[in-house]
Amino acid sequence: MKKLLYIFLLLLIFVLAGCVGEYIEPINPETVPPTTTPSPTVTPPPTEGIQTPEKTPDPTPELTPTPDPASEPPPDFGYIDAHADTISRALLYNPANQSLYDNDFLHIDFKRLSQFDAPVQIFALWLPDAYVTTAFETTNNMITFFENEVEKHSDIIEIAHDLEDIRRIAGEGKISAILSIEGGEALEGKIENLDHFYNRGVRILGLTWNNENELGIGISTNSPNGLKPFGIEVIQRMDELGMILDISHLNEAGFWDAHNTSTRPYMASHSNAHAVMPHNRNLKDEQIIAIVESGGIIGFNMFPPFIAQNGGADMDDVSAHFRHFIQLGAGNHIGFGCDFDGISSTPEGIVDVLSLKTLEDFLSEEFDTETSFKIMQGNFYEFFKRYYEG
Ligand SMILES: [Zn+2]
Asked: Which CATH class is domain 74-389?
Protein backbone atom coordinates (compact mmCIF):
# COMPACT_ATOMS: atom_id res chain seq x y z
CA MET A 1 0.00 0.00 0.00
CA LYS A 2 2.80 2.38 1.00
CA LYS A 3 4.50 1.83 -2.38
CA LEU A 4 1.27 2.66 -4.24
CA LEU A 5 0.80 5.79 -2.11
CA TYR A 6 4.34 7.04 -2.97
CA ILE A 7 3.76 6.39 -6.71
CA PHE A 8 0.46 8.29 -6.50
CA LEU A 9 2.07 11.25 -4.73
CA LEU A 10 4.95 11.38 -7.24
CA LEU A 11 2.48 11.35 -10.17
CA LEU A 12 0.49 14.17 -8.47
CA ILE A 13 3.66 16.32 -8.07
CA PHE A 14 4.60 15.88 -11.77
CA VAL A 15 1.07 16.82 -12.91
CA LEU A 16 0.97 19.92 -10.67
CA ALA A 17 4.47 21.00 -11.76
CA GLY A 18 3.45 20.74 -15.39
CA CYS A 19 0.35 22.91 -14.84
CA VAL A 20 2.33 25.62 -13.00
CA GLY A 21 4.81 25.70 -15.87
CA GLU A 22 2.02 26.60 -18.27
CA TYR A 23 1.31 29.82 -16.37
CA ILE A 24 4.86 31.22 -16.29
CA GLU A 25 4.98 33.77 -19.09
CA PRO A 26 8.18 34.03 -21.08
CA ILE A 27 9.98 37.37 -20.61
CA ASN A 28 10.28 39.27 -23.85
CA PRO A 29 12.62 42.28 -23.36
CA GLU A 30 10.72 44.35 -25.90
CA THR A 31 7.40 43.97 -24.14
CA VAL A 32 8.58 44.60 -20.60
CA PRO A 33 6.62 47.60 -19.45
CA PRO A 34 8.76 50.56 -18.28
CA THR A 35 9.14 50.81 -14.57
CA THR A 36 8.46 54.15 -12.91
CA THR A 37 11.63 53.95 -10.85
CA PRO A 38 14.83 53.44 -12.86
CA SER A 39 16.97 50.52 -11.90
CA PRO A 40 19.88 51.74 -9.76
CA THR A 41 22.24 49.68 -11.87
CA VAL A 42 21.31 51.56 -15.08
CA THR A 43 23.55 54.62 -15.60
CA PRO A 44 22.09 57.12 -18.05
CA PRO A 45 24.51 58.40 -20.67
CA PRO A 46 26.07 61.80 -19.88
CA THR A 47 24.26 64.71 -21.52
CA GLU A 48 26.40 67.33 -23.33
CA GLY A 49 29.37 66.61 -21.14
CA ILE A 50 27.50 67.45 -17.96
CA GLN A 51 28.21 64.73 -15.39
CA THR A 52 25.27 64.06 -13.12
CA PRO A 53 26.34 62.37 -9.90
CA GLU A 54 24.69 58.97 -9.45
CA LYS A 55 21.60 58.77 -7.26
CA THR A 56 21.38 62.61 -7.08
CA PRO A 57 17.83 63.63 -7.94
CA ASP A 58 17.45 66.28 -10.61
CA PRO A 59 17.42 69.65 -8.85
CA THR A 60 14.08 71.39 -9.02
CA PRO A 61 13.92 74.71 -10.92
CA GLU A 62 13.15 76.50 -7.65
CA LEU A 63 16.50 75.45 -6.27
CA THR A 64 18.53 76.53 -9.33
CA PRO A 65 17.40 79.92 -10.64
CA THR A 66 18.66 80.80 -14.12
CA PRO A 67 22.07 82.46 -13.72
CA ASP A 68 21.78 86.22 -14.08
CA PRO A 69 24.92 87.64 -15.77
CA ALA A 70 24.31 90.97 -14.04
CA SER A 71 24.59 89.36 -10.61
CA GLU A 72 27.69 87.36 -11.42
CA PRO A 73 31.00 88.78 -10.20
CA PRO A 74 32.75 90.67 -13.01
CA PRO A 75 35.92 89.23 -14.47
CA ASP A 76 39.18 90.90 -13.43
CA PHE A 77 39.94 93.21 -16.33
CA GLY A 78 43.22 94.60 -15.02
CA TYR A 79 42.00 98.05 -15.96
CA ILE A 80 39.30 99.91 -17.89
CA ASP A 81 40.32 103.18 -19.59
CA ALA A 82 38.02 105.61 -21.36
CA HIS A 83 40.30 107.47 -23.75
CA ALA A 84 43.35 106.89 -25.95
CA ASP A 85 44.29 108.50 -29.27
CA THR A 86 46.41 105.52 -30.30
CA ILE A 87 44.67 104.98 -33.66
CA SER A 88 45.13 108.58 -34.81
CA ARG A 89 48.74 108.69 -33.60
CA ALA A 90 49.73 105.49 -35.37
CA LEU A 91 47.89 106.18 -38.62
CA LEU A 92 48.31 109.92 -39.06
CA TYR A 93 51.57 110.69 -37.29
CA ASN A 94 53.91 107.79 -37.81
CA PRO A 95 54.14 106.52 -41.38
CA ALA A 96 57.32 104.59 -40.49
CA ASN A 97 55.46 102.14 -38.24
CA GLN A 98 51.69 101.97 -38.19
CA SER A 99 51.46 98.64 -36.39
CA LEU A 100 49.15 98.64 -33.39
CA TYR A 101 50.65 95.38 -32.13
CA ASP A 102 54.23 96.37 -31.39
CA ASN A 103 55.08 100.05 -31.67
CA ASP A 104 57.52 102.00 -29.49
CA PHE A 105 56.20 105.26 -30.92
CA LEU A 106 52.97 104.69 -28.95
CA HIS A 107 51.94 104.68 -25.28
CA ILE A 108 49.66 101.73 -26.05
CA ASP A 109 50.02 98.73 -28.32
CA PHE A 110 48.29 95.34 -28.28
CA LYS A 111 51.45 93.62 -27.06
CA ARG A 112 51.59 95.77 -23.93
CA LEU A 113 47.81 95.52 -23.40
CA SER A 114 48.12 91.74 -23.39
CA GLN A 115 50.21 92.02 -20.20
CA PHE A 116 46.99 92.86 -18.33
CA ASP A 117 44.33 90.25 -17.53
CA ALA A 118 41.57 91.27 -19.93
CA PRO A 119 41.68 95.08 -20.18
CA VAL A 120 38.96 97.25 -21.65
CA GLN A 121 40.41 100.12 -23.69
CA ILE A 122 38.27 102.75 -25.36
CA PHE A 123 40.03 103.84 -28.58
CA ALA A 124 39.11 107.30 -29.86
CA LEU A 125 38.93 108.33 -33.51
CA TRP A 126 40.26 111.87 -33.47
CA LEU A 127 41.08 114.07 -36.45
CA PRO A 128 43.55 116.95 -36.66
CA ASP A 129 42.12 120.15 -38.20
CA ALA A 130 43.73 119.38 -41.57
CA TYR A 131 41.30 116.49 -42.03
CA VAL A 132 38.08 118.31 -41.11
CA THR A 133 36.98 118.75 -44.74
CA THR A 134 37.20 114.97 -45.22
CA ALA A 135 36.09 114.06 -41.70
CA PHE A 136 33.50 111.41 -42.63
CA GLU A 137 35.79 109.66 -45.10
CA THR A 138 38.90 109.85 -42.92
CA THR A 139 37.02 108.54 -39.87
CA ASN A 140 35.80 105.61 -41.95
CA ASN A 141 39.36 104.93 -43.09
CA MET A 142 40.51 104.96 -39.46
CA ILE A 143 37.84 102.41 -38.52
CA THR A 144 38.91 100.16 -41.42
CA PHE A 145 42.56 100.49 -40.37
CA PHE A 146 41.68 99.54 -36.79
CA GLU A 147 39.47 96.62 -37.85
CA ASN A 148 42.35 95.24 -39.93
CA GLU A 149 44.82 95.57 -37.05
CA VAL A 150 42.39 93.85 -34.67
CA GLU A 151 41.69 91.11 -37.23
CA LYS A 152 45.44 90.38 -37.52
CA HIS A 153 45.56 89.80 -33.75
CA SER A 154 42.10 88.39 -33.13
CA ASP A 155 43.60 85.82 -30.78
CA ILE A 156 44.23 88.57 -28.19
CA ILE A 157 41.88 91.47 -28.98
CA GLU A 158 38.29 91.99 -30.14
CA ILE A 159 36.03 94.98 -30.71
CA ALA A 160 33.26 95.09 -28.06
CA HIS A 161 29.83 96.57 -28.75
CA ASP A 162 28.08 96.24 -25.40
CA LEU A 163 28.45 94.90 -21.87
CA GLU A 164 27.64 91.36 -22.97
CA ASP A 165 30.58 91.52 -25.40
CA ILE A 166 32.86 92.90 -22.69
CA ARG A 167 31.96 90.03 -20.34
CA ARG A 168 32.38 87.40 -23.05
CA ILE A 169 35.70 88.78 -24.36
CA ALA A 170 37.08 89.10 -20.83
CA GLY A 171 35.91 85.55 -20.13
CA GLU A 172 38.14 84.47 -23.03
CA GLY A 173 41.04 86.40 -21.48
CA LYS A 174 41.22 88.85 -24.37
CA ILE A 175 41.41 92.64 -24.71
CA SER A 176 38.12 94.49 -25.31
CA ALA A 177 38.44 97.47 -27.64
CA ILE A 178 35.58 99.97 -27.75
CA LEU A 179 35.46 102.56 -30.53
CA SER A 180 34.59 106.19 -29.83
CA ILE A 181 34.58 109.28 -32.03
CA GLU A 182 36.19 112.39 -30.53
CA GLY A 183 34.51 115.33 -32.27
CA GLY A 184 31.19 115.29 -34.15
CA GLU A 185 32.85 116.74 -37.28
CA ALA A 186 32.86 113.15 -38.52
CA LEU A 187 29.06 113.32 -38.97
CA GLU A 188 29.40 116.22 -41.46
CA GLY A 189 26.04 117.55 -40.22
CA LYS A 190 24.00 114.47 -41.21
CA ILE A 191 22.07 112.47 -38.62
CA GLU A 192 22.17 109.37 -40.86
CA ASN A 193 25.95 109.40 -40.48
CA LEU A 194 25.47 108.77 -36.74
CA ASP A 195 23.59 105.57 -37.58
CA HIS A 196 26.30 104.75 -40.12
CA PHE A 197 29.03 104.94 -37.48
CA TYR A 198 26.92 103.02 -34.97
CA ASN A 199 26.54 100.28 -37.58
CA ARG A 200 30.31 100.30 -38.04
CA GLY A 201 30.72 99.55 -34.33
CA VAL A 202 31.27 103.01 -32.80
CA ARG A 203 29.66 103.11 -29.34
CA ILE A 204 30.72 106.48 -27.87
CA LEU A 205 30.67 110.01 -29.32
CA GLY A 206 32.29 113.16 -27.96
CA LEU A 207 30.18 115.94 -29.47
CA THR A 208 33.03 118.39 -30.04
CA TRP A 209 36.75 118.61 -29.79
CA ASN A 210 38.13 122.03 -28.79
CA ASN A 211 36.63 123.88 -31.76
CA GLU A 212 33.13 124.78 -32.88
CA ASN A 213 31.38 122.30 -35.17
CA GLU A 214 27.85 121.50 -36.44
CA LEU A 215 26.87 120.12 -33.01
CA GLY A 216 28.17 122.76 -30.61
CA ILE A 217 31.10 124.65 -29.28
CA GLY A 218 34.31 123.32 -27.81
CA ILE A 219 36.25 124.80 -24.90
CA SER A 220 38.73 126.80 -26.99
CA THR A 221 36.17 129.51 -27.81
CA ASN A 222 34.74 132.13 -25.48
CA SER A 223 31.24 131.71 -26.89
CA PRO A 224 28.40 131.84 -24.33
CA ASN A 225 26.34 129.60 -26.63
CA GLY A 226 25.87 125.91 -25.99
CA LEU A 227 24.70 123.11 -28.23
CA LYS A 228 23.20 123.75 -31.64
CA PRO A 229 19.91 122.12 -32.73
CA PHE A 230 21.89 119.39 -34.54
CA GLY A 231 23.79 118.63 -31.33
CA ILE A 232 20.49 118.18 -29.46
CA GLU A 233 19.16 115.94 -32.26
CA VAL A 234 22.35 113.85 -32.14
CA ILE A 235 22.07 113.27 -28.36
CA GLN A 236 18.42 112.19 -28.75
CA ARG A 237 19.36 109.72 -31.47
CA MET A 238 22.36 108.47 -29.44
CA ASP A 239 20.04 107.72 -26.51
CA GLU A 240 17.80 105.73 -28.87
CA LEU A 241 20.70 103.82 -30.42
CA GLY A 242 22.54 103.16 -27.19
CA MET A 243 25.58 105.24 -28.05
CA ILE A 244 27.27 106.73 -24.98
CA LEU A 245 27.50 110.53 -24.78
CA ASP A 246 30.95 111.94 -23.97
CA ILE A 247 30.99 115.57 -22.79
CA SER A 248 34.78 116.09 -22.46
CA HIS A 249 35.89 119.09 -24.58
CA LEU A 250 32.42 120.74 -24.59
CA ASN A 251 32.19 124.30 -23.34
CA GLU A 252 30.25 124.89 -20.13
CA ALA A 253 27.00 126.06 -21.79
CA GLY A 254 27.17 123.02 -24.09
CA PHE A 255 27.72 120.77 -21.10
CA TRP A 256 24.50 121.94 -19.43
CA ASP A 257 22.54 121.60 -22.69
CA ALA A 258 23.87 118.05 -23.04
CA HIS A 259 23.10 117.27 -19.40
CA ASN A 260 19.54 118.53 -19.79
CA THR A 261 18.99 116.64 -23.07
CA SER A 262 20.48 113.24 -22.30
CA THR A 263 18.21 110.67 -20.68
CA ARG A 264 20.94 108.11 -20.01
CA PRO A 265 24.10 108.01 -17.88
CA TYR A 266 26.91 109.77 -19.72
CA MET A 267 30.66 110.22 -19.42
CA ALA A 268 33.40 112.79 -19.29
CA SER A 269 35.94 110.42 -20.80
CA HIS A 270 39.10 112.42 -20.08
CA SER A 271 38.64 115.41 -17.75
CA ASN A 272 39.90 116.37 -14.27
CA ALA A 273 38.74 118.51 -11.34
CA HIS A 274 38.69 122.28 -11.99
CA ALA A 275 38.79 123.04 -8.25
CA VAL A 276 42.22 121.35 -8.04
CA MET A 277 43.60 122.62 -11.35
CA PRO A 278 41.62 125.53 -12.84
CA HIS A 279 41.97 124.65 -16.53
CA ASN A 280 39.02 125.08 -18.90
CA ARG A 281 39.33 121.39 -19.92
CA ASN A 282 38.52 120.41 -16.32
CA LEU A 283 35.12 119.98 -14.67
CA LYS A 284 33.70 122.42 -12.15
CA ASP A 285 32.21 120.96 -8.97
CA GLU A 286 28.62 121.48 -10.10
CA GLN A 287 29.40 119.63 -13.35
CA ILE A 288 30.93 116.73 -11.42
CA ILE A 289 27.82 116.54 -9.21
CA ALA A 290 25.56 116.62 -12.30
CA ILE A 291 27.51 113.74 -13.88
CA VAL A 292 27.15 111.73 -10.65
CA GLU A 293 23.40 112.44 -10.61
CA SER A 294 23.10 111.12 -14.17
CA GLY A 295 24.73 107.87 -13.08
CA GLY A 296 27.69 108.88 -15.22
CA ILE A 297 31.45 108.51 -14.96
CA ILE A 298 34.60 110.64 -15.22
CA GLY A 299 37.91 109.39 -16.63
CA PHE A 300 41.04 111.00 -15.15
CA ASN A 301 43.33 112.61 -17.75
CA MET A 302 47.13 112.16 -17.40
CA PHE A 303 48.12 115.37 -19.18
CA PRO A 304 50.18 117.36 -16.60
CA PRO A 305 48.77 120.80 -17.61
CA PHE A 306 45.32 119.47 -16.61
CA ILE A 307 46.67 118.13 -13.30
CA ALA A 308 48.88 120.80 -11.71
CA GLN A 309 50.32 124.28 -12.11
CA ASN A 310 53.64 124.89 -13.91
CA GLY A 311 53.12 122.17 -16.49
CA GLY A 312 54.53 119.26 -14.50
CA ALA A 313 52.80 116.77 -12.22
CA ASP A 314 53.71 113.96 -9.85
CA MET A 315 51.71 111.23 -8.18
CA ASP A 316 50.71 113.47 -5.26
CA ASP A 317 49.17 115.87 -7.76
CA VAL A 318 47.25 112.98 -9.32
CA SER A 319 46.05 111.87 -5.91
CA ALA A 320 44.82 115.42 -5.08
CA HIS A 321 42.25 115.18 -7.90
CA PHE A 322 40.99 111.79 -6.73
CA ARG A 323 40.69 113.11 -3.15
CA HIS A 324 38.62 116.00 -4.41
CA PHE A 325 36.33 113.75 -6.47
CA ILE A 326 35.81 111.51 -3.44
CA GLN A 327 35.10 114.48 -1.14
CA LEU A 328 32.43 115.64 -3.60
CA GLY A 329 30.71 112.26 -3.40
CA ALA A 330 31.97 111.08 -6.79
CA GLY A 331 34.01 108.17 -5.39
CA ASN A 332 31.91 105.63 -7.31
CA HIS A 333 32.03 107.67 -10.52
CA ILE A 334 35.73 108.08 -11.26
CA GLY A 335 38.14 105.99 -13.28
CA PHE A 336 40.79 106.58 -15.92
CA GLY A 337 40.68 108.21 -19.33
CA CYS A 338 44.44 108.60 -19.48
CA ASP A 339 44.55 110.20 -22.95
CA PHE A 340 47.54 108.04 -23.86
CA ASP A 341 48.90 108.80 -27.33
CA GLY A 342 47.03 112.11 -27.24
CA ILE A 343 49.34 113.87 -24.80
CA SER A 344 52.90 115.11 -25.22
CA SER A 345 53.93 114.59 -21.59
CA THR A 346 52.91 112.49 -18.59
CA PRO A 347 53.21 112.78 -14.80
CA GLU A 348 56.46 111.65 -13.15
CA GLY A 349 56.48 107.87 -12.93
CA ILE A 350 54.00 107.39 -15.77
CA VAL A 351 55.63 106.20 -18.98
CA ASP A 352 53.01 104.28 -20.91
CA VAL A 353 50.00 102.03 -20.39
CA LEU A 354 52.07 99.55 -18.35
CA SER A 355 52.49 102.31 -15.74
CA LEU A 356 48.87 101.64 -14.77
CA LYS A 357 50.21 98.68 -12.79
CA THR A 358 52.38 101.06 -10.75
CA LEU A 359 49.47 103.44 -10.42
CA GLU A 360 47.24 100.69 -9.03
CA ASP A 361 49.80 100.00 -6.28
CA PHE A 362 50.12 103.73 -5.59
CA LEU A 363 46.36 104.16 -5.23
CA SER A 364 46.15 101.13 -2.92
CA GLU A 365 48.72 102.73 -0.62
CA GLU A 366 47.31 106.24 -0.93
CA PHE A 367 43.69 105.17 -0.32
CA ASP A 368 42.96 101.45 0.09
CA THR A 369 42.72 98.41 -2.17
CA GLU A 370 38.95 98.75 -2.58
CA THR A 371 39.21 102.38 -3.75
CA SER A 372 42.11 101.50 -6.02
CA PHE A 373 40.12 98.65 -7.60
CA LYS A 374 37.11 100.92 -8.12
CA ILE A 375 39.22 103.57 -9.86
CA MET A 376 41.13 101.03 -11.96
CA GLN A 377 38.08 99.17 -13.25
CA GLY A 378 35.17 98.66 -10.81
CA ASN A 379 33.50 102.04 -11.30
CA PHE A 380 33.60 101.82 -15.10
CA TYR A 381 32.15 98.31 -14.98
CA GLU A 382 29.30 99.58 -12.79
CA PHE A 383 28.79 102.49 -15.22
CA PHE A 384 28.43 100.08 -18.14
CA LYS A 385 25.91 98.08 -16.07
CA ARG A 386 23.88 101.23 -15.35
CA TYR A 387 24.03 102.25 -19.03
CA TYR A 388 23.16 98.89 -20.58
CA GLU A 389 21.04 97.24 -17.88
CA GLY A 390 19.44 100.23 -16.13
ZN1 LIG B 1 40.74 114.86 -26.07
From this structure: alpha beta
